[in-house]
Amino acid sequence: MGEAPASREIPEGAPKGKQAFRKAFNREIKRQANEETFKSVSSLVGEIIPPKRRNQHNKIELTAELKEEIVQRVASGELMKHVCQDEHMPSYFTIHREEERDQEFGADMRAARRACASIYADEVIEISDDAKEDVKADGSINYELVARSKMRADNRKWIAAKLDPARFSDKLQTDITSGGEKIEVKETSALESARQIAFALEMAKRSQSEGNGE
Fold first, then answer.
1. Is the pLDDT of residue 185 over 60?
2. CA distance linking residue 51 with residue 43, whole number of Å
3. Distance of alpha carbon 24 from alpha carbon 17, whole angstroms
4. What is each CA distance from 214 to 72, 178, 210, in whole angstroms?
5. Which range, of 42-46, 61-65, 114-118, 134-138, averages the lowest pLDDT?
6. Per-residue confidence at 18, pLDDT binned at 50, 70, 90?
7. Against a cut of 0.90, is the pTM above it?
8. Cα end-to-end distance, the chain, whole Å
9. Alpha-carbon span 91 to 106, nearest angstrom
10. 173: how many CB neighbours lie within 10 A of its CB?
């Protein structure tokens, strides 16, 4: 009489039954497939999108030579965002912090931005005078292009006024005196400035009348 076949032991925790085993097997296959897919996609994204260099830029020392280059590039109209994208340049935060810390560098940057405002003002004139494509081939007005040109000009006027309000702002800066005391009225509208001037003159007139005993 032959020996009875040895019983096959089921590992502890393993699913019991063919249907349960098939479900567990399918889940494992999907898990492995998802892991491979994720690795492939991550590798592809890494090739298309370069890793951020924020930490690398923060480690770059802002030397005197870099400061001079930054000032010249900003004065020529280049955006700080584009300047900081160069590999040899520090981060925007580093430059801004140095502007606050180094008074000489901060003054140079303010002067550079005022020079940049002049470039924006010149561009406003160029954009306004460029009308070669305002009319389509069929003789109709290209309203979309006209509207876009107006927006470009308005944006440059706005930023020029912010960078150099003394030259390009629509608001008035007025210094007046009343009874020997200086009254400063800064960055007010024309109407408000006129009201304040009239009020100061009236107060000066009353003060003079009281001094004469009238």
1. no
2. 12
3. 11
4. 62, 19, 6
5. 42-46
6. low
7. no
8. 144
9. 16
10. 13
Phi, psi of 52 (to 5 degrees): -65, 145
Mean pLDDT score, 25-45? 65
The domain limits of the chain are 54-168, 172-211
DSSP per-residue letters across the chain: -PPPPPPPPPPTTPPPSHHHHHHHHHHHHHHHHHHHHHHHHHHHHHHHSPPP-HHHHHTS---HHHHHHHHHHHHTT--HHHHHTSTTS--HHHHHHHHHH-HHHHHHHHHHHHHHHHHHHHHHHHHHH--TTSB-TTS-B-HHHHHHHHHHHHHHHHHHHHH-HHHH-SSEEEEEEETTEEEEEEEE-HHHHHHHHHHHHHHHHHHHHHHTT-
Answer CATH for 54-168 from 3.40.30.10, 1.10.10.10, 2.60.40.10, 1.10.10.60: 1.10.10.60
Of residues 138 and 2, the one with the higher pLDDT is 138
d(CA 211, CA 204): 11
pLDDT digits (tens, 9 = 90+) for 70-81: 999 999 999 988
**Which tens digit of pLDDT belongs to each residue from 159-172?**
999 999 888 887 65
- Mean pLDDT across 150-161: 90
